[in-house]
């Protein structure tokens, strides 16, 4: 198809690709200036699906083509040859419409490391005010938190006896209690705060996009899937995309900004001829710029799902497997907006060190009063809890690349979990630490019995192998268009694609290293930073 055969939608100052967590923030911030005309494109549909808004609804939005891209990884050697589902939001709000709703920023050292790697302006002291600017903290404002912003943060609306006991047990072995994981050092154990408002999911679409929806200078298009960027020489000038099945194009007088995430953004670059030159030639894609870092440096958190049978207490397994229990949970939610239907996938968290030599925690626990064989399967018939534990700073690196020049074909996703020797050691130590917590006095009234990986598994090699057999993604892919100053970096510290004018990336793909916690709110603060950089550069 020639360019002339496409419908031309005209010119906007800014074209934002992806209305996910970052894209919604950026659209809000750029459209605040009435002089800016902003077009926001989303490949998925509107966020009017019932299960988006009920917190437990992530069970029905993930792996559902209505709301999820439904990606899968390639078979992973470190996981015993298994291929994993790899959920990514395909709906207004993106991953914030289908994720676990946990409000976590990571550690101050994460951002200070980015700055030390040569990315000026990305240290904790520069980033903390941006977190506070967008935050609406239910506890009120203080030195670390903001109130009155668009991103609502509230307390969990339920507790569980077995989780309270786990918290006590963690304290017994030296993991202190905490009520705030977001002050810069997240060490400790406590209930997570969540992005909800009175028991209903609070997404980036609700917080940032809806308040801006009536601005005359903001246009939002759904069912708009990017195909490739348009260029004049080495300047990005627009985008070809498919709008509800029809081929269209649009031009950007100022910038095109990719907010398509760690999977989508490198794919759009490669489809447009930006990436490893030989790889592009092999696919028959004309090379615009040889940028070898595109699609590389993939990092993700692999959670090791340790399961313990328990006695003398009620877990979600019993309630969900009982007809009366399910009816009761439904009534509790629809009458009071409380109870298990308000649950994030994990309720209790802990940040700890697999080895005392670490300066700050390198492990995160997501503890749940339930168990199942794998995500999407029925809960077990026996009462149990799951203590999922992940290495916060994995050294394994993977990649995401096109399989073909067809924009509709899903990419090849290769996380390479547990490919680095140190990651295997941390996995073994993480299981041992979980066992220490389970053996602590506070849990003994519930007679915890290790179900997975099983008490017979011992030794570094066997434990690392077991971690791969029971491990699964916790949905935190980052780094595939990393920020930096070297030849393998894709964007500079101002998020400009190196070697291409008029093109920026503002999403989790730019992270040089993964943050030490869940990645949704850090992705949004990247967009906050991007909005400031874009305004500064336009003034200059």
What would you note in describing this structure?
The chain has 540 residues and is α/β, with parallel strands linked by helices. The strands form 7 sheets. Strands 1, 2, 11, 12, 13, 14 and 25 form a 7-stranded mixed sheet that branches. Strands 7, 17, 18, 19, 20, 23 and 24 form a 7-stranded antiparallel sheet that branches. The protein has 2 domains: 1-48 and 85-151 and 199-297 and 477-540, FAD/NAD(P)-binding domain (3-Layer(bba) Sandwich); 157-191 and 302-391 and 416-476, Cholesterol Oxidase, domain 2, CATH 3.30.410.40. Helix content is 26%, strand content 22%.
Summarize the structure.
The chain is of the alpha/beta class and 540 residues long.
Which short descriptors sum up this protein?
FAD/NAD(P)-binding domain, Cholesterol Oxidase, domain 2, 540 residues, GMC_OxRdtase_N, alpha/beta, Choline dehydrogenase
How many domains comprise the coordinates? 2
Derived from helix and strand composition plus strand pairing, the structural class reads: alpha/beta
Low-confidence stretches: none
Distance between the termini: 39 Å
Say how many strands there are.
25
Shape: globular
Question: CATH homologous superfamily of the largest domain, by name?
Answer: FAD/NAD(P)-binding domain
Q: Report the CATH architecture of the largest domain.
A: 3-Layer(bba) Sandwich
Task: Indicate the topology.
Elements: E1 7-17, H1 21-31, E2 38-41, H2 50-53, H3 58-61, E3 71-72, E4 85-86, H4 108-116, H5 124-134, E5 135-137, E6 151-155, H6 161-172, E7 188-191, E8 193-194, E9 196-197, E10 200-201, H7 204-209, E11 218-221, E12 224-232, E13 235-243, E14 246-258, H8 261-271, E15 274-275, H9 277-282, E16 289-290, E17 302-309, H10 316-320, H11 323-336, E18 348-352, E19 363-368, E20 384-391, E21 399-401, E22 412-414, H12 421-439, E23 449-452, H13 460-470, E24 471-473, E25 503-505, H14 520-539
Parallel strand pairs: 1-2, 1-14, 2-11, 5-6, 14-25, 15-16
Antiparallel strand pairs: 3-4, 6-8, 7-18, 9-10, 12-13, 13-14, 17-20, 17-23, 17-24, 18-19, 19-20, 21-22
